[in-house]
Amino acid sequence: MLGENIKSLFSIIIVSYNNYKYIYDAIDSVLQQTYPNIEIIISNDASGDFLQEEIETYIENNKKDNIVRVVINNNEENIGTVRNVNKAIGMSNGELIFLMAADDGLYDETVLNEFAEYFNKLGDRAQVITAQTAMCGESLGMIEYLALDATLVDIIKTYTPNDMFKHLSHTYTIPATSTCYRRSFYEIVGLYDEDYYLIEDAPQFIRMSRMGIRAYYLDIIAARHRDGGISHGNKSNTSDAFAQYCRDEIKFYEKEVFPYADILGKKIINHVKEKHYLVSKSYIYKFEWRHYSFTQKTLFFIKNIRYLFKKILRPTIDKIVQFSFNLEKMKNFLLIGMMMFLFSIIVCRVEVNNNMRVILFWISKYVGIFGIISFLSLLGINILYRIYIVLKKGFQMLNEGK
């Protein structure tokens, strides 16, 4: 327990894999901390770009008296993020633990002091404290936006553990990049679940919520995070890392959510089932599709026509509906159609080569027809969509009345 002594050992754990070029930003953000009692644990997961001796020399030459212990580990083989984090925690001695990726950094020099003081203020009831994360681009000096909007901050501040469990079942909310733990947290909840390979935070947060433990919110920006990773929407690639991330996400729903359907309720479970369905089918389409025979591909589409609609047809229909509400573009279709019809009439009366006249006439005629039909079609879609909205609201009101 910290008690009134905020000088308890603070373990900063930096995990690294193929991001050596950024690691000095992370190290510098720790070296500049004003907290008086820090140990640095760096664990590289067997990436070839990791230069251990250079890092050791850099820290030794730049550290102040508040860095009391440095441990640098370089795994002989890749064991995955989750196991690497657990291994690093096992090497640490601190009462407080802060986990950081090698391409991130602490926001300013007061972050660890702020966490320690807040833990001291809250006492043993606080096992976990989270804070805001600044999302940056390639340079950590350029903040593009904040990870948590006002709604998410309010959820973290006000939700009971049971409410948070329900929320975390379908929405990642607590920013692991800016979260700090007591060592006793891992004694109560356990280390990160090694059934997962890359995702360590989501299973841990939802498990602690089920156990009645909440994350308290410290109103500061605690970390700078380089955006663009697979956990923040950059999922268009077909890398092995993203494939593993998808497998972890599928496992998350199957292990942490579906077994608790009686607690979560039908509405949440149906919502999560939809997410699980789309992630599962997306995984097949991205990573297993190339191995499928023509027959297997045909059967896939027949069995999963809903997936095809969701991923391809629905976005197209949504764009057409949005287009139908753009009056300027609608007017342009009508205007082009009328002008081309007028041009086709003029062509009939101009003295030019007969073949050229015929070509110009048919081109202008069909372009005109296309413009007018497009206008009428979009107008019809617009009207039908408005009718659909009215009927939908009417059915909702009837259901609410029942």
Structure description:
- The protein is built from 15 helices and 9 strands.
- The two termini are about 55 Å apart.
- Residues about 230-235 have low confidence and may be disordered.
- The radius of gyration is 29 Å and the shape is elongated.
- About 55% of the residues lie in helices and about 15% in strands.
- The protein is of the alpha/beta class.
Would you kindly provide a brief summary of this structure?
By secondary structure, the chain is an alpha/beta fold. It contains 15 helices and nine strands.
What attributes does this structure have?
single chain, 402 residues, alpha/beta, 15% strand, elongated
Topology overview:
Blueprint lengths: L9 E7 L6 H9 L6 E7 L7 H11 L4 E8 L6 H11 L4 E6 L3 E2 L4 H12 L5 E9 L6 E4 L3 H9 L2 H8 L10 E4 H7 L11 H10 L4 E12 L13 H18 L3 H4 L1 H23 L5 H10 L1 H20 L2 H23 L4 H48 L1
Parallel strand pairs: 1-2, 1-4, 2-3, 6-9
Antiparallel strand pairs: 4-8, 5-9, 6-7, 6-8
